[in-house]
Write a structure and sequence with these properties.
Bound molecules: FE3-S4 cluster
Distance between the termini: 23 Å
Strand content: 5-15%
Radius of gyration: 12 Å
Order of helices and strands: EHEEEHH
CATH architecture: 2-Layer Sandwich
Number of helices: 3
Structural class: alpha+beta
CATH class: Alpha Beta
């Protein structure tokens, strides 16, 4: 089992999840963070840190978010580790109100 970052993170990147993670399992792309399933120790402490509730246990994903399991694993292998939190993206508050944001992920085009 692992935890998975889902669609709500897209174009927000609050990064509160990063500082609480004890094992540095988060990787950062331009508009999204992912969890490396090989590093995640399933502690779950990041879940309540995310202001937009983007993180779920793999076995407890909301309907329609299953594609993010594969996406987290694949992009974690491509993107660098993020070790420290930083400011959210400039329009994070606006994007936090948007539920369908996966079209902004290049890696998900056509998925
Ligand atoms: Fe994304 Fe939430 Fe972390 S918006 S960067 S999963 S705190």
């Amino acid at each position: 089992m692992t935890y998975v970052v889902t669609e709500a993170c897209v174009r927000c990147k609050y990064t509160d999840c990063v500082d609480i993670c004890p094992v540095e399992c988060f990787h950062e792309g331009p508009e999204f963070l992912v969890i490396n399933p090989d590093i995640c120790i399933d502690c779950g402490v990041c879940v309540s840190e995310c202001p937009v509730s983007a993180i779920y246990a793999q076995d407890d994903l909301p309907a329609g978010q299953e594609v993010f399991i594969e996406l987290n694993a694949r992009l974690a292998a491509q993107w660098p580790v993020i070790a420290e939190a930083h400011e959210p993206l400039a329009d994070a508050e606006t994007w936090a109100q948007v539920s369908e944001k996966r079209q902004y992920l290049d890696a998900l085009q056509g998925a």
